Automatic annotation (TrEMBL):
Lineage, uppermost ranks: Eukaryota, Metazoa, Chordata, Craniata, Vertebrata
Domain of life: Eukaryota
Annotated organism of origin: Lynx pardinus
Family annotation (Pfam families): B12D
Protein's name according to its UniProt entry: NADH dehydrogenase [ubiquinone] 1 alpha subcomplex subunit 4-like 2
Keyword Membrane found: yes
Length: 87
């Protein structure tokens, strides 16, 4: 096996065991979903501050009806009113 590339060994294993194809597909789908979710958290979450100079506290600029959670089951953000002071 010396001198063979990783891709060639992988292809040989897939040819030998075709039942691995769905497992590899689901693992790839899970890894892709996790990467997209982390990207969404990094770009859309108010807890992450990329620009400290122009916006040092991004969580203070959220209005009460901004939905920043991924899934809100029982909360309707359009009906919420402001209950905190301005800073």
């Amino acid at each position: 096996m010396a001198g063979t590339s990783v891709g060639a060994r992988f292809y040989r294993q897939i040819k030998r065991h075709p039942a691995l194809i769905p497992m590899i597909g689901f693992i790839g789908l899970g890894m892709g979903s996790a990467a997209l979710y982390l990207l969404r958290l990094a770009l859309r979450s108010p807890d992450v501050c990329w620009d400290r100079k122009n916006n040092p506290e991004p969580w203070n600029r959220l209005s009460p009806n901004d939905q920043y959670k991924f899934l809100a089951v029982s909360t309707d953000y359009k009906k919420l009113k402001k209950d905190r002071p301005d800073f």
